[in-house]
C-alpha cells in the first residue's frame, strides 16, 4: 500500500508539473495569439420579448489556436486572469467590439448594441475607462451602443475602487449588466449602490424552469425585482420553448440562448439578420 501511495504521489506531482508546463505554454501562445490575429468575437443575439426584435448581441471571445484548434474561453480566460494577460485581451475585446459597431454602419446590424464581458481583474486596471472612451471615440460610436457585463463578484471585490470605476463607465453612457445574477454570495445592497442597468439571470436557474418549482420562483422574483427597480432583465441559456413561454408570461424583457441562436461570427449574424432568420 505504501509503494502504491508513493507511486500515486509521484504520478500526482508529475501531473501537476505537466499541467503547469501546459499552462505556461498556453499563456505564451496567448501573447502570440494577440499578435497573430488568432482571437475573434462571436455574437449571440438577445431577443427582445416585448417587440420580437433583436436589439443587442453578446460578444463572446474565441481563440483559433494554430495547432489546438478552437480553445474555449473557459480554458484561457481564467489563465489570462492569473497571468495578467487579461488586460491585453480586455483592451483587444473593447477595440474589436467598437470597430465592429463602426463596420456595421449601413448594414442590417447597424442598430445593434454589443455587450462585452469584462473580468474583475480588468476593472482594477486604472486605464480601463480611458481605453473604453478612446476606443469609442476612435470608432465614432455612441457609448450607449456598448454594454459591459460583470459578475457580482467583480462588482463587490475591492468595492470602493470598483464603485468609482463603474460610476465612471456609467457616466460615459455605457450600460452596466450584472452577469450570472443569483449565483454569487453577495448581498442585494450593491443593487442599490451601483448604477446597474441590466440583470442577467444565471443559466442555472433557466435550465430547470419550469420543471423545478424553486427555479421558477427565483426567476420570477428576479424579473419582478428588475421591473420594480426600473431596469432591464435578461435570461441566459434559453434552450426550450417552455422556458421561452415562461419568460414571456412573467414579462422578462430579453432572452438569449441556443433556442434563439448560437453565438456566431459577425458575417453570419449579418446574413441571418438580413434574411430575417432570427425574428
Ligand atoms: P458567460 O458570460 O456566462 O457567457 C455565456 C456562455 O454560455 C457562453 O459560453 C455561451 O456560448 C454559452 N451559451 C449561450 N447560450 C447557451 C445555451 O442556450 N445553452 C448553453 N449550455 N450555453 C449557452 P462561452 O462563449 O464558452 O463563454 C464562457 C465564459 O467565458 C463566459 O460566460 C464569460 O464568463 C467568459 N468570456 C467569454 N468571452 C469573454 C471575453 O471577451 N472576456 C472575458 N473576460 N470573458 C469572456
Ligand atoms: Ca456574459
Ligand atoms: Ca453565465
Ligand atoms: Ca460567467
From TrEMBL:
Instruction: Provide this UniProt record's keywords sorted from A to Z.
Output: c-di-GMP, Coiled coil, Membrane, Transmembrane, Transmembrane helix
Query: Under the GO molecular function aspect, what terms does this record hold?
Result: cyclic-guanylate-specific phosphodiesterase activity
Shown part of the complete sequence: 454 to 732 of 740
Residue ranges of domain EAL in the record:
23-277
Which one GO biological process term can you cite for this protein?
signal transduction
Give the species: Marinobacter lutaoensis
Q: Does the keyword Coiled coil apply?
A: yes
What's the protein here called?
A: cyclic-guanylate-specific phosphodiesterase
Cellular location(s): Membrane
What superkingdom does the record give?
Answer: Bacteria
Gene Ontology cellular component annotations, sorted alphabetically: membrane
